[in-house]
Amino acid sequence: MRIRWPRSLIARILLAEVVTFALAAILLLSFTQSALRGAVARYQSDIFVAQADAVASGLRPGPDGRWRVELSPSLSPIFQTHYDGRAYRVVDTQGVVVARSAFAPTEPAPAAPRGDRPSVFSTGHLAGVSLPVDTDGQRLWVIVTQEQDRPGAILDDVVAAFMRALAVIAPLILLLPIVNGLIIRRLVGAVRRVSERAAEIDADRLSDRLPEAGLPSEVIPLVHAVNALVDRLEVGFRRQAEFSSNIAHELRTPLTTLSLKLNLVEDTGLRAQLAAQVERLSHVLSQLRDLAALETLDKQNFEAVDLKALAISVVGEMAPSVVARHHMIEVSGPSSAPVLAEPALVGLALRNLIENAVRHTPDGVRIRVSVDVDGSISVVDDGPGIASEKIGEVVRRFWRADHGRTDSAGIGLSIVQRIMDVHGGVLTVQNRKPRGASFSLRFLGERIARAD
Predict the structure, then answer these.
(1) In the prediction, which pLDDT does 366 show?
(2) What letters, b where the CB count within 10 A reaches 16 and e where it falls short, cover 309-333?
(3) Do 165 and 143 touch, CB atoms closer than 8 A?
(4) Which domain holds residue 118?
(5) CA 10 to CA 293: how far, in whole Å?
(6) Within-domain flag for 283
(7) Which pLDDT value is given to residue 391?
(8) Which H/E stretch holds residue 21?
(9) How many domains does the chain have?
(10) Backbone Cα Rg of the chain
(11) For 341-362, what is the mean pLDDT?
């Protein structure tokens, strides 16, 4: 079965560290135990051999024909107590003990070899050395032993105590990946928060910048680069808005002059055609000016807007021109539906929707501006509606339902969409049954300021 690494960076680091530290702890325990026991065995062997040499040096035949051992004052106390279980025996070729220390048994040590060289041995709880000695023409063996379970046998106790301490330290070492994981998680959390902040930056929030507090130094250059990119975007958007506004301003005066000069044209038909073209250009310039204003909108100026009152005001202003084009218009809905918005922009969006309904429906169509308590306002008509395959394109800039018409630049609905974007709202376009179209503006979430 194939083992897959987790996708999370924290999980990968923690997994690698846990495996590494676990292997290191196991190897450390094994190596330390082996090294300590080897060192203790060598040290103990050297002590046994030295003590056996000392016993052999003091081995003397007595007047009665028995062997005796004369030890130095420094070594004699070791064998005069049974505290550490240290003892010596001297045996002959027949295995008979011919001399021994005070607490040594009368029988030879079990498994004690009797060879031609010093031999270290260990059996059960007993460890020692067997040293061959040739004295007075006789081969003897000096056997020095120690009982490992005696209180005075401290070497094994030292090893055991050290291994217990190491066994306690090893799990503490395994805590390091957890500590590292917490630190990395905190750093990654800071990076994630900055990423979320970056995702919130759009055309309406180009003044926002990513913070550097709490970020690792390796990530700060990326934050600097993103902030510099947003700086350039903000400058670009500002220049674009200024350019559109300047173009609209510069062309306003020539269009006004041209409109006045049209009265000098004697041909009535030609004058009407030229007047329509001038009106179209004026309309396009107004839309460009509106788009430029949207790019520099300050949301701090939003205020509570009564949609019903605003609808009545806009319809009252546009009613004469709507009726002149052989349409009917009305307002319906609750008396109050306040939303947090810029009233001039909401009015502009509503005017564009009404004008769109007038432009793209035949004479005699009824247009209704409907206000709802959920913070929405809709412009509906009973005209022919929108072809289903074109509904998704109607808010695209420079799109026109009738490409043969020349009285609109096709950016009116894109302005409405942009207005809803800066308000955090939604523009919904759909056909009605059995006929007609509906354009709805809905102001969502916390932007709705309901009346008490």
Answers:
(1) 93
(2) bbbeebbeebbeebeeeebebebeb
(3) no
(4) 9-158
(5) 46
(6) no
(7) 58
(8) helix 9-57
(9) 2
(10) 51
(11) 87
Residue 214 in any domain: the answer is no
Q: Alpha-carbon torsion 92, 93, 95, 96, what sign?
A: negative
**What tokens were used for 300?**
């701090």
The residue out of 133, 158, 183 marking a domain boundary is 158
- How far is it, in rounded angstroms, from Cα 162 to Cα 94? 43
- Cα gap 261→278, rounded to integer Å: 11
Name the residue with higher pLDDT: 91 or 27.
91
Give 283-334 pLDDT, tens digit per residue.
Answer: 666 766 666 666 556 666 788 888 899 999 999 989 998 999 899 999 998 8
Distance in angstroms (rounded) separating the CA atoms of residues 254 and 145: 121
Cα dihedral sign, 172-175-180-182 = negative
DSSP-based three-state secondary structure for 408? coil
For residue 151, give the CATH number of its domain.
Answer: 3.30.450
98 lies in some domain = yes
Rounded to whole angstroms, how far apart are CA atoms 217 and 325? 66
DSSP 123-169: ETTEEEEEEEEEETTEEEEEEEEEETTSTT-HHHHHHHHHHHHHHHH
Please check whether residue 149 lies inside any domain of the structure.
Answer: yes
Q: Which of 132, 158, 184 is the last residue of a domain?
A: 158
The tokens of 257 are what? Answer: 């002059």
